[in-house]
Amino acid sequence: MLDDISYVMTFVLNRTFSHNHDEVHRLVSGGGRIGPRGNAAGLVPGLFEPRVMIQPGDLDELKTFMTVVLGLSREDFVRVMRVIRGTVDATRRAVDDPTGAYTDLVAALESLADDHLTTPVTWERYDGRARKIIDAALADEQQALIAKVRAAVLQAERVGLKRRFVSSTMARISPAYYRSEAIGVVRAPQAADLERMLGLAYDIRSRRGHILEDLGEEAWVSTDGAETVFEPRFRRILTIAGLWRLVRHVVRGFVAQAPQVAAEQWDYRSALPGILRMQLASQFWVSQSEGFDADTAQMGFNGVAEAFISWHSGQTEEGIDLTGVVAKIQQRVPVLADGTAKTTMVALHALWHAWIDSELATPDAKAFLDAYGHCLDDPSPVAFSVAVLSGRAFPDWTTQQWVELARERRADRLTGKEAPLPTAMDVLLQLEAADRLEVAGLHEQAIEFAANAVEECPGHADLLAWEQRLVEGDHDPRFNCHNFIYGTDCDTGSSAEEPTTARDDVRDDASPASEDTAATT
User: Fold this and answer.
1) Measured between alpha carbons, how far is 308 from 189 in angstroms, rounded to an integer?
2) Which residues pair with 229 in a beta bridge?
3) What is the arithmetic mean of pLDDT over 265-281?
4) What average pLDDT does the segment 327-348 reach?
5) Would the CA dihedral through 35, 37, 39, 42 be positive or negative?
6) Crossing angle of helices 381-390/423-439, nearest 10°?
7) Residue 200: CB partners within 8 Å, gap ≥ 6?
8) For residue 521, pLDDT beyond 70
9) Which candidate, 491, 472, 470, places its Cα nearest to that of 482?
């Protein structure tokens, strides 16, 4: 609260308020570096003056502003406070990074832009270089076509971000900006030039953001607080001081025009400082059956797989109890149509019963899997994951089916549409496809899928070594999946004659429910 009040007082009164004494001492005139490059007061007049008087009228203006801001809707309040914090911080680092401060001031203005304030530009005021190119191309055309093309170009310009920024800002400038507020200002912007200078300010922000181009020193060295300055590449532009006054004017106008609302319910705790939002480890939520249904089955399967991997690899000691989830699966699956949700639920059921001791299994578990286990026969990422994590034999999928499954999974990963799975499953699926392609004599395709596997887990030494041997024609059909998933070697590995990578035994006799009498470790 103290910080926010300090920001608002600084913004409204154009004087520096802060509980950080060292920062104030550095910024105010005489407390910082000497010379035109180190004088913050020369960049933004008034803001960093060392000795100032606050008049009663100034305090009345501050009180009015605070009252109105507190009456805004939550959305508008957050919008205004974000601009205030951002612009005040920008002025405080202007000496060290003038171009960065300039772009932040422009970005603050842009954040207040609204579509309904965007107005079309006339053809005569459209960008001169672009206008000449278009006019030359239309030189021999009929007037009707020329008018139509120009109208389309201007309409496209209107929906552009730059036009939105310029129009919205211009719409919020009141007569006072050129009158009472301009008294005593050095080289205040002229009304006829302001629209063009706003466009140039937007271009400067874009150059900084896209090609890291810095603002020429003419725009900020020895400006003596002027609000406009000559800059060789752009002619006359707004300075940091000019943008600062403009932002303060626009924000006050925005606040004055925004609707006042009654007090809204709001959970203030979400905005308190020092809060870290982190994803809850899966072992702490996967056992909750209340939220488990067809829509959350994929997330649940991923969570259970991650919880088991964490437990089996020794990363966590917390076990899981899926008794309630399994009971819900046995109720829901019989009434579900065939599809991803049904397959995922069956996979989760099979995975759980492959891990726990047989005496802890539900009485009708075998009958359930006999009735619905066929869902895991068709190629799918969850069927593959069940086979890897439970030691089940892979269904008799053809090489083409393996390739299609791995390729579809990779495509889904690239578009962000994939069902969640542990990273190890994505790696081993691509590795399995690569291995089978190599066995089939399709070396180049095998290299492609091996690369996919490496890129799913960048920098992993075992994967890099396996890929390198494959590329060199020294195919190794063995890959220690158990070590890759759990970080430990497996004592019950399969025979060396097995050609496929994911068929190493990745499960031993330990299970997450075998150490207690209940199905929980």
Assistant:
1) 66
2) 237
3) 84
4) 94
5) positive
6) 90
7) 234, 237, 238
8) no
9) 491
Q: Quick one: pLDDT at residue 231?
A: 77
Confidence of residue 38 (pLDDT cuts 50, 70, 90): low
Kindly report, residue by residue over 59-101, the tens digit of the pLDDT.
999 999 999 999 999 999 999 999 999 999 999 998 888 888 9
In sequence order, which ranges of 44-160 are alpha helices (DSSP H)? 56-70, 74-92, 98-111, 128-137, 143-159
- Angle among Cα 112, 117, 121 to the nearest 5 degrees reads 115
Which of 512, 454, 509 lies closest to 479 in space, CA to CA?
454
DSSP 34: S
Integer Cα distance of 83 and 88 in angstroms: 8
Judged on CB neighbours under 10 Å (0-12, 13-18, 19+), 306 is buried
- Sequence-distant (≥ 6) Cβ neighbours of residue 141 within 8 angstroms: 149
Q: What is the 3-state secondary structure (H, E, C) of 186-237?
A: CCCCCHHHHHHHHHHHHHHHHHHHHHCCCCCHHHCCCCCCCCEEEECCCEEE
Q: Which residue has the tokens 């971000």?
A: 161
**Distance (Å, rounded) from C-alpha 16 to C-alpha 301?**
55
Residue 364 has a pLDDT of 87
Q: What is the pLDDT of residue 107?
A: 93
Distance CA 351, CA 375 (A): 13
**Is residue 392 left, alpha or beta, with left meaning phi > 0 and alpha meaning psi from -120 to 50?**
beta
Number of other CB atoms surrounding residue 64 within 10 Å: 13
Q: What b-and-e string marks burial along 228-254, b requiring 16 or more CB atoms within 10 Å of the CB?
A: bbebeebebbbbbbbbbbbbbbbbbbb
Rounded distance between C-alpha atoms, residue 519 and residue 496, angstroms: 35
CA 104, 156, 125: angle at the middle one, nearest 5?
75
Predicted TM-score (pTM) above 0.70: no
Q: What is the mean pLDDT of the chain?
A: 85
**CA gap 305, 296 in Å, rounded:** 14
Who's near 514: CB < 8 A, 6+ residues apart?
Answer: 356, 357, 521
The span from the CA of 26 to the CA of 42, in Å, is 14
Residue with tokens 């203030």: 268
